[in-house]
Amino acid sequence: MENKIGKYAVGLDLGTTKIVAIIGRFNEHGKLEILGHGKALSLGIHRGVVNNILQTVESIKLAVSQAEAIADLKISSVVAGIAGQHIRSLQHSDYVTREDPDSVIDKKDIVQLIENVEKLSMLPGEKIIHVLPQEYKIDGQNEVKEPVGMYGARLEANFHIVIGQLASIRNIDRCIKNAGLTGNTITLEPLASAEAVLSQEEKEAGVVLVDIGGGTTDVAIFKDNIIRHTAVIPFGGNVITNDIKEGCSIIEKQAEQLKVRFGSAWPGENKENEIVSIPGLRGREGKEISLKKLSQIIHSRVVEIIDQVFMEIKNYGYNEPSKKLIAGIVLTGGGAQLKHIRQLVEYVTGMDTRIGYSDENLASGSPKELSTPMYATGIGLLLEGLRIENAKDTPQNEEIPAEETIEASAAENPEENLPPSLDAGEEKVKAKARTRYLDWVVDSIKKFINDDVN
User: Fold this and answer.
1) Cys bridge to 218: 16, 190, 256, 306, which one at CB 3.0-4.6 A?
2) Which of 1, 26, 21 is nearest to 383 (CA)?
3) Are the CB atoms for 236 and 217 separated by under 8 Å?
4) Is a pLDDT exceeding 70 seen at residue 222?
5) Sequence-distant (≥ 6) Cβ neighbours of residue 403 within 8 angstroms
6) CATH number assigned to the domain with residue range 88-166, chosen from the 4 options 3.30.1490.110, 1.10.1060.10, 2.60.40.1180, 2.30.130.10
7) For 134-147, how does the pLDDT look when each residue is reduced to its tens digit (9 = 90+)?
8) For residue range 366-399, what is the model confidence (pLDDT) as tens digits?
9) Among candidates 175, 127, 129, 136, which has minimal Cα distance to 156?
């Protein structure tokens, strides 16, 4: 989207506990300049799935109106996130046979390959959300990372395919439309969070992103800058709150406040005599809660979540030499703000762990709260929206110069400028280029002698 302030985009995070709208654009340094943001309680979403459209629409409208008021503009389209236990992923290989193997591979060939995968038959009620290319293969040559510009008759690729329930996807679309907006695209939330908090070096070395939200815990594993595995675990911060509520016999609001202000994932940090008082309801006597007991309740549930995450890491096969995850684990999402959770994750998994913040993507002067882990998904969705906006200005079918173009440029430039990718089948082109290069040298010498004589 573009207006007097330039090109901007909107990320819409549809979470279980909150709905966030963030409007932003890139500044001259390539950092995110936040124009406006809004937040509303999420009352119609449970574990990442819409279960009340009317309430969700109202929450979207409230968050968007807050962001619009701060940015002083009217937005029309958003990039929304999707999660939920209905999400699953699979690996798939596919290929295309090219009509002209002597022409270079271009973006149209990649698009055709992806379109073939998108036509795969899914289980009833399912829809493909993402088709993510991994390694390519050209005429049997393995581990090709960038096929554009190469030659070959058979182009193959391995794909990571993300699939979701069609009903859930449609409900998100319906909520966005009923809120008076258009959905640019729907993005898997862990992929969005990864864009916000992971560096290229981490993705190259091998890293696990763990986004602990209110209703779900999302997992994304990267290696060699390629997405290798995704999963959505149907447990998040809300189950911890619910356990505190039941274990301490208090209401949900009090349980959430206890978790945020005094909660710890490591029981050994609290002494037996550390007590916090909770006001009673409607004139009743208050309660005294042991912080030791509180941390024990939290610890039990967090260990269960970490065990599920570790199982996904094991399913990926991280013990294999080629699949080592050198960068370890990066925690983000609201649950990553729980005290001592980093140490507990390191203890359970034995992997280096850090908390992921999105502040490296934000321009100076951005609201401080947006750099916290709980806004990582919203920032990632905003980045995806800006990528889509910028792609609109980029030609989709850029052609690699044909042989005639290579011949023409060779006649005008020194031989060392010839493309190094020319193979044995291009010897005629190289021979013509050498001849024209020698002609160019002779002409240059003649011109120099004539100029000197004159």
Assistant:
1) 190
2) 26
3) yes
4) yes
5) 426, 429
6) 3.30.1490.110
7) 889 999 888 888 99
8) 999 999 999 999 999 999 999 998 887 665 544 4
9) 136
